[in-house]
């Protein structure tokens, strides 16, 4: 469990710099350069992610069950993760109405993903992993909206084709992961 906690601390810590120390981050980028900042950010993120994967896989071998999962939660989680995948796609597909309206769809997708997994899973490792990501996503979205109020983002134009492509890409990615990738990579079939 220590590996999981350490991985979460490193990964979410790196991803929380904009939440707790945005001015310091900006100063470091100016001082060291964007490339050096991104290299360090990436290296620490990969280290943290690797520790999360390792720690979670170790914790799953001897799970500490905290509650009984109600029936049907895996189906609700599947629906919520479908929406989360569409939100993730919305962060990258240009000219879609989802990003134009929500501004930070990736963080909202992480919220949904984490919440869905908390509904469907019931161990201490699940609570640590998905609960940490949910708390981080709530704080990250709040900080992003505060930055938006201080410096309003450009108005994004949306097209029906961009929105349709977003939904299609998100749904296809979800289907691939739900029906194949989750079992192959995580070892659990969600459906």
From TrEMBL:
Topological category with respect to the lipid bilayer: Multi-pass membrane protein
Annotated keywords: Membrane, Transmembrane, Transmembrane helix
Ranges where the NnrU domain occurs: 4-190
Compartment annotation: Membrane
Domain of life: Bacteria
Predominant place of localization: membrane
A matching Pfam family: NnrU
Membrane-crossing residue ranges in chain numbering: 35-56, 76-93, 113-139, 160-181
InterPro entries xrefs: NnrU_dom
Signal peptide: none
The protein's name: NnrU family protein
